[in-house]
Amino acid sequence: MVGLLLSAAPPRGSGITIAAALAAIEADSDPDSRSETIERTAEAVADADLRAVLQSLVPLEGTAASELRELLVSRWAENDAPAAAAWVAQLPEGAAHHDALQQVAIAWANTDLPGAVSWVRALPEGESKQAALLSTAYEAARTEPLTAVELARALPAARERDELVVHALSQWAAADFAAAADWAAQVAEPDLRQQLLAAVAVASAEQDASTAATFIARTLKAGAAQDGAAVAIANRWAQHSPRDAAQWVAQFPDSPSRNTAERDLVALWTTQDAPGAANWLNELPTGTLRNVGMIAYAQALTQQGQTQLRE
After folding, report:
1. C-alpha span between 105 and 85 (Å, rounded)
2. Which residues of the chain have pLDDT under 70?
3. Residue 41 phi, psi (nearest 5)
4. Exposed, middle or buried: residue 206 (CB in 10 Å: 0-12, 13-18, 19+)?
């Protein structure tokens, strides 16, 4: 039925066709079929009809209507972000307004980041602005992480803000470790500062795991942030130099974090070089470190054997 409705759609989308398609989509129990039909419905709407169709979708409820609105607003914003933003601004507060702002923010940031930043900063204060700021900042973090960090400063202290800053600092650290680390060290909130320093170290471990390991030892207090960073750095280090990573892990105090780091490291090392992993384990003195490693080694070999049998 949906296909017939769409194939019968005129070159320029009409509210009647869209409404009929939405009703059929809501009745479709196949998620893949639903997604495909929503995309085809959006494609059937001509650019000249975007405003009118979107206006007709505003009062409609349901998942299909919401997803179609997102697709159409995103397309409009990609082609003419200021016009799409002006239309969104006249919508009443509510789910449609909130979601549309985010779509405009994402599309605009991808085509004109400075313009998107200026627009989002000028929005009226409220939850919708905060959501648009988050969306803009996450897009900015891919290419302009410092801009993302600056946008985060406009957000109230909350989990979402902290996650954004961690993400942006991680992107920044991969390109400029020293600058990102210096910025993180200036953060006044102690818990967030520890979290950011850990993220900076982990992000830089891809390029220089040894320096990242030294960094967390010198800058992070003993605790969850340092433990989590150590495990993540060990995993990255093991990709390139498993013996060096293993020797570093062996220096950890006996703890659950050391066990986790060793298990992950030995499992990876065994898939890359089982004899090398075995030699290192045999060099260890009797104790927890050796026992945990031996168990991880045996499990990795078993998993390898099972994989080979399936193949």
Report:
1. 9
2. 1-17, 308-311
3. -65, -45
4. middle
Q: Is the separation of the CB atoms in 202 and 182 below 8 Å? A: no
Residue written as token pair 């060290």: 185
Buried-exposed string 82-108: b where 16+ CB fall within 10 A, e elsewhere: eebbebbeebeeeebebbbbbbbbbbb
d(CA 289, CA 292): 5
Cα separation, 58 vs 18, in Å, equals 13
Length of the chain: 311
Which single residue is written with the structure tokens 């933003």?
85
Domain spans, the chain: 175-240, 249-311
**pLDDT per residue as tens digits for the range 215-248:** 998 898 888 888 899 999 999 999 889 999 999 9
What pTM, to 2 d.p., does this model score? 0.73
What is the CA angle 277-280-283, rounded to 5?
150
Please enumerate in sequence order all residues whose Cβ is within 8 A of that of 110, keeping only pairs 6 or more positions apart, or say none.
78, 139
Instruction: Give buried/exposed letters for 37-57 (b at 16+ CB in 10 A, else e).
Output: bbebbbebbeeebbeebbebb
| Per-residue pLDDT, 133 | 95
